[in-house]
Amino acid sequence: MQDPELSLSVRVAEVRFSQSMTINLGNYQATKIDVGVTFPVGPDHNVQETFDLAAQFVEKNLAKQIEESVGENPLPTPSKTPAPRKTRRKIKK
User: Fold this and answer.
1) Sequence spans of domains, the chain
2) 74 and 57 Cβ atoms separated by less than 8 Å
3) How far, in Å, CA of 24 to CA of 20, rounded?
4) 15-62 confidence digits (pLDDT tens)
5) Which of 49, 50, 48, 73 is nearest to 62 (CA)?
6) Contact at 8 Å (CB) between 38 and 18?
């Protein structure tokens, strides 16, 4: 088993992911919530997998922080169906 101290000191890369959201509270007030994380990527780890893990961590915790601050989660829930495309109609004269 590898020493945890040693594995953190040998880095190939570093992955940082953050998201923020500004929420209008009404009455000319707003709040901004920011969540971010940085993970070291060792020689035995995949950068993309580490990025996906960081993104998942941030998205989960951003939603939690928003709910705690505002009392509801204004983030859209992921949908499996794509949003309808907007089309322009030509006006006949």
Assistant:
1) 4-70
2) no
3) 13
4) 999 999 998 888 888 889 999 999 999 888 889 999 999 999 999 999
5) 73
6) no
